[in-house]
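Ligand: pyridoxal-5'-phosphate. Inputs:
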Amino acid sequence: MTTPIQHLLRPNIRQLKPYASARSEFSGTAQAWLDANENSFGSGLHRYPDPLQWAVKERIASIRGIAGERIFLGNGSDEVIDLLIRCFCEPGTDNILIFPPTYGMYEVAAQINNVAVTEMQLTKDFRIDSARALATAGAGTKLIFVCSPNNPTGNSIDRSTIVELLEGFGGIVVVDEAYTDFAPGSSVLDLCKKYERLVVLQTLSKAWGLAGLRVGMAFGCLELIAVLNKVKPPYNIGQASQQLALQALGSEAFLQESIANILAERNRLEQALPEFSFVRRLYPSDTNFILVQVADANGLYAFLTERGIIVRNRSSMPLCSNCLRITVGRPEENDALLHQLKQYGYV
Ligand SMILES: *Cc1c(COP(=O)(O)O)cnc(C)c1O
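Predicted complex:
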């Protein structure tokens, strides 16, 4: 009997026999590790790392309240996005459904894999019309990517919308929660227990402050996580990254403190920005950035760039005309931004 996950997989992936190292066939303490051509005289990092990163996963499991076997770790969530497309979408045949304006990597990863992208715009108030989405998803649609809270719009997608997609769509629903820690209550992680076709992505790159480390997480049913483990490069997370991730995950106090700092600074910017005559609209944010509509986004973007203040110009994205996406920085960075905005106001 084929399970729904097996049925959705590309046939070559369903049949794939994974790479097996001698070490994955042995567990215990050995007297001599002579199997992997490592340099035993080496540096402290001379051994290949744990391919399944159990220490890190156990820590994440206890923080998120989910079994370690339901966690997959990628070299950033970007690796997980690519792996999901590679596992489920037959190049040249299948497609993914995305809701622009949204995170750019879904489309790029699909294009790299020669997988078509079906686009359905968010509504004007940045919601997903689930009935229309279900009608838009075709026979070849294997994955729906929902970004919540969404980048660059900053809002969360209603849980009921995600449930409607899960109930009505036969493929995999991927919910990218890179910013969920900034919006307590926004996560749908608990729904993984009920829906085996739900994958939730989170990352250490945003609230955890570890973008340089490149560690992203996927949460899902045992079967789907096993598929990702089978397809990933065996040692996709280096030993140094595993050690540093474990260390960082040890301090939830740091996480909470940095979230509080960012939210306080976001609030300060949200108070200050509407005072400028050229600011037309501020979109409510569940994230560590603010989408701002201004009179002339290209002009303001150029002005700020010339003065060393780098923001993201999103004005060419659908529903984002004249919009800049501003990441909440440290107080002195936000001060520098506000200072330059004052100068611009006098131009
Ligand atoms: C920043 C971001 C990520 C993070 O990707 P990593 O590869 O984990 O750094 C994922 N999704 C969205 C929507 C993002 O904005």
